[in-house]
Amino acid sequence: MATDIANPPPKANVSIESVLGLQTQSPFQRLLGAQSFWVTIALIFICLVMAYLQPASFATPENFYNITRNFSFIGIMALGMTVVIATGGIDLSVGSVMGLVAVACGLTLEAGYPWWAAVAVGMFAGFVTGLINGVIIAYIGLSPFVTTLGMLSIARSVAVVLSGNRMIYKFGPSGPAFKWLGGGSIFAGTHYEVSFPLLFLIVLTAILGVVYKMTAWGRHVIAIGGNEQAALLTGVPVNWIKVQVYIVSGMAAAFAAILNVGWSGSAINALGSTYELLAISAAVIGGANLMGGEASAYGAFIGAALIFVIRNALLMAGVDSNWQGTFVGTFLIAAVYLGKIRGAKRE
Amino acid sequence: MSILELRGISKHFGAIHALNDVDLSLETGEVLGLMGDNGAGKSTLVKVIAGNFPPTHGEIRIGGENVHFSKPVEAREKGVEVVYQDLALCNNLSAAANVFLGREINKRLGPFRWLDHAAMARRAGELFSELKSETRPRDLVRQMSGGQRQAVAIARTRLSKARMVLMDEPTAAISVRQVAEVLDLIRRLRDSGMAIILISHRMPDVFSVCDRVAVMRRGAKVADKLIKASSPEEVTGLITGAIQTA
What we know:
The complex is a heterodimer of chains A (347) and B (246). Chain A is built from 16 helices and two strands. Helices cover 72% and strands 1% of the residues of chain A. The radius of gyration of chain A is 23 Å and the shape is globular. In chain A, strands 1-2 form a two-stranded antiparallel sheet. In chain A, α10 packs across α11 (216-226), α10 packs antiparallel against α15 (297-316) and α14 (275-285) crosses α15 (297-316). Residues 1-22 of chain A have low confidence and may be disordered. In chain A, β1 and β2 form a beta hairpin. Chain A is mainly α. Chain B is of the alpha/beta class and 246 residues long. Chain B has eight helices and twelve strands. In chain B, α5 (146-157) runs parallel beside α6. Chain B is globular, with a radius of gyration of 19 Å. Chain A binds chain B through residues 16-17, 19-24, 213-216, 219-220, 222-223, 225-227, 229-231, 233-236, 293-294, 346-347, and chain B through 72-73, 76, 82, 84, 86-93, 97, 101-104, 106, 112-115, 121, 125, 128-129, 132-134, 136-140, 142-143, 156.
């Protein structure tokens, strides 16, 4: 065309060095591109609407205390879940692992051992289930879905057998210390009371966030989800890291179970049934990609928070509690759809 | 002295003889074109050199030293770098992260080792500018052109003291303009004293950057001659079998 000849495109006179420091996305653009940012906005919006509609029941320190403690258990599980999802895997066994850990802790306390022994036994149970999942998935090569589905069944059944299908609540001399771990709080008696589970969740979220951003291990986890073959060829110990991520997930579930048993004051083998779905939902709503390669610690935190605030808000608004699943499910599907749109934009 | 010498390399997968008694040598600063039809054994040969699997028979000498690899990492330690056909890049990571994948630069702080993002971005930037590629270290690989992706994969080979780079079809899936870019990258690697094996199906690429061409057919090497002494017609004949040997 004539105009093209008359107006040649401007010559690029930018040196390579001058663009080396640039990023295509500014930090602000990256913030807008992050799913966890939009979930945070949605969460704040729901809270503001509820505070306006139900000032007497929703926007109270007691309600805040209850919601934050309730979502902390799921949040801690979801943190472990993001690590597995980041590698492109899935861990369906976490709910059953909670049941097994609860029984293990309960029996240890009932036998009169100290609280720290119960914690150690519980964490060890989580470690072992994670190790078994990881070894089967990484070294035998079975699919994560099938392997952890099998563990879901196994861990629950072992929990029922070990407990003799009874509730364990006589915690022995070390009971109060163990209960304090999950049921305690700081600033008790003030408007700013914060439960221990929430404190643990905040600390663990911060630690995992740093691990993702600042360690070779975190980067390798993300790389495996991005392109497992590439990670293998560049010398990343792919199989060993896969074992480790299932151990992390198992131990996260174990820790959530320990806090939950401490808070409720009793150990039942049914603890955590269907919690795996909540943990996966929380991770996915927070921006974890089930195809792997994308996950964030803050996402797990905010995803768990959103699920429990929605449930609480519906309850406060007088909606039949049986509708909660419908709302949470809708949010989950919407979150995956949002992630798909973001993915399409980037390609 | 030859940097690489293969003597009587054979590779059998059960009854299938993928490689039969292949001899090959490569000098420092030389670009060798490795050509052949699909299934001729090019990729198998490269995988043997790169340590993906050991040969059934024969010996590999690198810098005069007899070597036996069982993992790609072992070959890398001997200075053999590979640019894989699919480039082995993680789309979800930045260019710098990909260059350093598996070989991250850490700094010590307290009892832990932390990624040194600044040092890795700086070094990756230096490598890209050495390769005269307009690739930005902090960009996600997902958003890059084929030529930039090649630059990332090639920059990776420059991290260590590599002596030899094996490139599997680097120009197979990119645009014409980017092909020229990649061929320039190969020339720069050669000028820096690297020995290069270029596997390619593209006659023009081989005849523009290679010093020598080796042709494989049915697992055997049927020709090995200087580019100056050959022609695209002759090589085509050798690949298809119209010309038996040269």
